[in-house]
Amino acid sequence: MVKMKVVWQTLAMQDLRDIYDYYVDKDSLKFAKELKKKILDSSKYLSKHPEMGQIEENPKLSKRAYRYFLVEENYKVLYIVSETEVNILGVFDNRQSPDKMKV
After folding, report:
1. pLDDT value of residue 2
2. Mean pLDDT in the chain?
3. Quick one: pLDDT at residue 69?
4. How do 54-55 and 85-93 pair as beta strands?
5. C-alpha 94: how far from its chain's center?
6. Chain centroid offset of residue 92 CA
7. Share of the chain above pLDDT 70, in %
8. Closest Cα partner for 88 from 48, 55, 54, 44?
9. CATH fold of 5-100, please?
10. pLDDT at 101
11. How far is CA 75 from the centre of its chain?
């Protein structure tokens, strides 16, 4: 099995920073670091298993084959798979309205 490169796009990195900053302000630095680490670590599995995530069924998104996986039950990591790499497009809090997805 060939490992694919996992690439975090700018919007996804901003989403991750926003989540981190939110929990630093509202909870604790420790929790913010742990959550950020869980999200980053879980995305590493995509290099060997790029199709592990479910197909995203949000009609707001284009017809591309968006996939996602869940982290900590509340966070959805959206990504697409190309021939050579996995592109992480965003991290979304499932407790929000799906209309707020920026991808």
Report:
1. 76
2. 88
3. 86
4. unpaired
5. 11
6. 7
7. 85
8. 44
9. YaeB-like fold (3.30.2310)
10. 64
11. 7
The rounded distance, in Å, linking the Cα atoms of 44 and 20 is 19
Spatial CA neighbour of 99 closest among 55, 70, 61: 61
Report the distance separating Cα 46 and Cα 86, nearest Å: 7
Tokens encoding 41: 């670590």
Token pair in block for residue 44: 């590493």
User: Where exactly are the structural domains of the chain?
Assistant: 5-100
pTM value? 0.85
Query: Given its phi and psi angles, is residue 73 left (phi above 0), alpha (psi -120 to 50 degrees) or beta?
Result: left
Please check whether residue 91 is in contact with residue 16, taking contact to mean a CB–CB distance below 8 angstroms: yes
The dihedral formed by the CA atoms of 30, 97, 60 and 89, expressed in degrees to the nearest 10: 0
Eight-state DSSP code of residue 89: E
Strand, helix or coil for residue 57: coil
- Distance, in Å, from the CA atom of 10 to the CA atom of 29, rounded to the nearest integer, reads 23
SS3 (DSSP) at 80: strand
Alpha helical stretches, state H, the chain = 10-26, 29-43
